[in-house]
Amino acid sequence: ADDLALLQGDEVETTSDGGEAGLPVVAIVGRPNVGKSTIVNRIIGYRGAVVQDTPGVTRDRVAYPAEWNGRRFTLVDTGGWEVDVAGLDASVAAQAEIAVERADVVILVVDATVGATDTDERVVQMLRRSGKPVILAANKVDSRTQESDAAMLWSLGLGEPYPVSGLHGRGSGDLLDALLEVLPEVSAVANPLPADGPRRVALVGRPNVGKSSLLNQLAGEGRVVVNEIAGTTRDPVDELIEIHGRDWWFVDTAGIRRRVHKAEGADFYAVLRTQQALEKAEVAVVLVDASEPMTEQDVRVIQLAIDAGRALVIVFNKWDDVDEDRRLFLAREIEQELRRIEWAPMIRLSAKTGWHTNRLTRALDVALDSWDTRIPTGRLNAFLGEISAANPHPVRGGKQPRILFGTQISARPPRFVLFATGFIEHQYRRFIERKLRENFEFEGTPIEISVCVRE
Ligand code: GDP
Ligand code: GDP
């Protein structure tokens, strides 16, 4: 009972690594090299967390969970994304505009050592039109003597410039305090996942894998339910499609059907859009073009789905276009690239001919069932007892860490916290994950295992 009490408190904090549905969204915008990414790192660095096993954490994503003074929000980083150097002004403004559209509050970062440039002015105009609250961060104020540089930025007409040093952390507390003052409790842009109603599906994948073809095929087979469910407000970009007598929400379909922003800032836009669709969905269908060699981008989209903590189904599309040679090669690619996610259902189909598309909903159900699973604490501990008796953690430096107790702190996806007497090695955690999957059939869902060390 003591252990459970602890879990209610602040000491164990596990959040999904993507943006979390419903949390207010803060976008960081500004010219290249003003220090956006440095500031983002500093802000997300404040997040105190238990040791967490998050394989393959990359900087591919753009939205991060963040927290200040007990308030949680999602931070969208536009730093690190290439802008078109030829049209610097326009592309910085365009990129910022995309981010701002889906944010509740904006932090504009300006390099105080440079002062306000034309590009900064242009972004300011855009921000003003957006009507969103803006916090002005005057970055690279590494010492008190530089604070007068920050004061020059009053000229931008955005109110008080907050002098900060992303590099050293100076002033970031004041900046975050100011942010909290304008941060809404409830986001106006990120909708929380509804607790019931039709399940929510995101079709994701790199361009041209066949997302819109599959959507059309499914909508063609089924019925597109046009009217809204009474008493609910839905994003018009979501489509309700009836398949085999059941309704499913396909989220962010407008982004699939309308091919916008394909050229400029395509990478940034594609990742942000994918993350936003994932955020709204319960299950991700990642499409891969089976007729072509798998790319890094395919693997990256899969990683985004896992990071977002969504149930996962992999679709190998264009099977009508796959010959024997390609089939063998693909099997090898799967072995190499997707070994880590052998728990995800994989379906071969053809969006073009409709072949096997009827298999999709079954796979979605399997993945969602796993995603929803809750293992009673008693059963979990019986299982943990058995595996640690049969395969104890290796002795290290004369000590043998033991797992004292474990509990599932959430479902959707299943998250576990283990309390141990010492550091649990990565390999052993992997082993536990494998055993958990063997025992409780988590087909189609990522699971998270955090370890809390108690002396
Ligand atoms: P971004 O393109 O806006 O994301 O900028 P980065 O975060 O990548 O930073 C660009 C450069 O500015 C890097 O070399 C940083 O180390 C440097 N930088 C960032 N913040 C500060 C700061 O507060 N002080 C100083 N002196 N340099 C900084
Ligand atoms: P999206 O960018 O992911 O939405 O991809 P589209 O649905 O626009 O498809 C990109 C291209 O692949 C189009 O030319 C489609 O006709 C083609 N395509 C999509 N699905 C299939 C399929 O199952 N088989 C074949 N042979 N082509 C497909």
Describe the protein's architecture and organization.
The protein is of the alpha/beta class and 455 residues long. Helix content is 35%, strand content 20%. The chain contains 14 helices and 17 strands. The strands form 3 sheets. Strands 9-10-11-8-12-13-14 form a 7-stranded mixed sheet, with helices on both faces. It binds guanosine-5'-diphosphate (2 copies). Residues 30, 32-38, 79-80, 139-140, 142, 165-167 line the site of one guanosine-5'-diphosphate.
Determine Rg (CA atoms, Å). 24 Å
Major sheet, described briefly?
7 strands, mixed
What helical percentage do the residues reach?
25-40%
Total helical elements: 14
Report the portion of residues in β strands. Answer: 15-25%
State the oligomer.
single chain
Determine the N-to-C terminus distance: 18 Å
What small molecules are bound in this structure? guanosine-5'-diphosphate
State the shape.
globular
- Structure classification: alpha/beta
InterPro entries: AAA+_ATPase, G_ENGA, GTP-bd, GTPase_Der, KH_dom-like, KH_dom-like_a/b, P-loop_NTPase, Small_GTP-bd
Protein name: GTPase Der
Function: GTPase that plays an essential role in the late steps of ribosome biogenesis.
GO molecular function, one term: GTP binding
